[in-house]
Amino acid sequence: MTAAVEPTGPVVPDAPAAALHAEGIKVQFGGLIAVNGVNFTVPNGGIVSLIGPNGAGKTTFFNALTGLYKVAAGYVLLGGRDITGLPPHRVADLGLARTFQNIRLFGLMTAEENVKVAMHSHLKSGVFGTVLRTPRQRREEKEAHETALELLDFVGIGKTAGEYARNLSYGDQRRLEVARALALRPKVLLLDEPTAGMNPRESAQFTEFVHRVRDEKGLSLLLIEHDMSVVMRVSEHITVLDRGEKIAEGSPEQIRTNDRVIEAYLGTAGKESGA
Ligand SMILES: Nc1ncnc2c1ncn2[C@@H]1O[C@H](COP(=O)(O)OP(=O)(O)OP(=O)(O)O)[C@@H](O)[C@H]1O
């Protein structure tokens, strides 16, 4: 593989040609092994879901991928580059962005300001530019304003640009989180329970939205999702965790009919959920 010029992390020569690849990931909290030797791949342009019962280790695995938790063993490759052990902000700069299970917005900032804050790492003007309001800084401000509005439009909440984040509906706050993650210009986007709290209509629209994000922004996506009807509709590939271990992976059809998955998680509800 050819080494792209990036500021950190060695290029691993035989890394699988994937957007994101994790190998042998282990995360421990004292004596508890929350994730145990998990291998995992998000193909370029793929939409992958991570599912499993409560406490299976899904969020812990996400946190290990994004540098929030330290791994006890294993490594993570983003586009073939080793990002293991890098702090979350470096991981985000290198192209792995995420949303959180519990929405993390600045409630007393407007929707537009929330998106602009995320763009900060891409702006070139330093402290002096900010203080002196140089022409470059004014130009960047204008561009940031336009990009923020474009992103808000893209996620379907352009009209709320001037509203405080805390006044938006729950579904719109989730969309704002996605806009903010997209402002980082990621290569891979991780969504942690994106439809939690959405009404059935919003959940149904969400499937189409995820495909649009992938197609129009050229991203790969990884989701943790509890709503099985969403999982089965949105995913091209599903990985199932149970008690920290990967117990199955495959297409929605393969997962729906996998005996081990049915026993551990889906029960009859999984068999009944539509494709
Ligand atoms: N910060 C932590 N300290 C100690 N134990 C933790 C911590 N975070 C998670 N755990 C434990 O690790 C295991 C995996 O939890 P995790 O939250 O990753 O599961 P999950 O699959 O995301 O569950 P849910 O679907 O309920 O969000 C659980 O036993 C949990 O109690």
From TrEMBL:
Taxonomic lineage per UniProt? Bacteria, Bacillati, Actinomycetota, Actinomycetes, Micromonosporales
Gene3D superfamilies (alphabetical): P-loop containing nucleotide triphosphate hydrolases
What keywords appear on the UniProt entry? ATP-binding, Nucleotide-binding, Transport
One Pfam family name from the record?
A: ABC_tran
Q: Which InterPro entries does the annotation name?
A: AAA+_ATPase, ABC_AA/LPS_Transport, ABC_transporter-like_ATP-bd, ABC_transporter-like_CS, BCA_ABC_TP_C, P-loop_NTPase
Q: Which GO terms describe its molecular function?
A: ATP binding
Cited PANTHER family: AMINO ACID ABC TRANSPORTER ATP-BINDING PROTEIN, CONSERVED COMPONENT OF ABC TRANSPORTER FOR NATURAL AMINO ACIDS-RELATED
- The superkingdom of the source organism is Bacteria
PROSITE patterns cross-referenced by the UniProt entry? ABC_TRANSPORTER_1, ABC_TRANSPORTER_2
Query: Residues in domain ABC transporter?
Result: 20-268
Q: What is this protein called?
A: ABC transporter ATP-binding protein
